[in-house]
């Protein structure tokens, strides 16, 4: 289970957005309770896919940045003279 931390205001906005979506795209008036059920479904079944994709994207960016830092550090190395 994801630990989604949303404020009450954020949750209310999302629920209102879900209601608006159903009204504007499906010509359905859904109750706040029904919108909450849709939101719960999204959190449980859809959000983990999006979350994992975001983590994968962040990992890719961090690996690229680490590679760049390693290259920059390697360029600072000086040759060691052997007698």
Automatic annotation (TrEMBL):
It comes from the Bacteria. It holds the Pfam family DUF2164. This is Uncharacterized protein (DUF2164 family). It comes from Lysinibacillus parviboronicapiens.
């Amino acid at each position: 289970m994801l630990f989604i931390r949303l404020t009450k205001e954020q949750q209310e906005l999302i629920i209102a957005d879900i209601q608006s979506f159903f009204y504007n795209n499906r010509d359905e008036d859904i109750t706040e309770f029904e919108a909450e059920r849709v939101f719960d479904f999204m959190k449980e079944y859809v959000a983990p896919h999006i979350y994992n994709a975001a983590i994968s994207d962040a990992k890719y960016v961090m690996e690229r940045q680490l590679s760049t830092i390693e290259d920059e550090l390697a360029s600072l190395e000086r040759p060691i003279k052997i007698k």
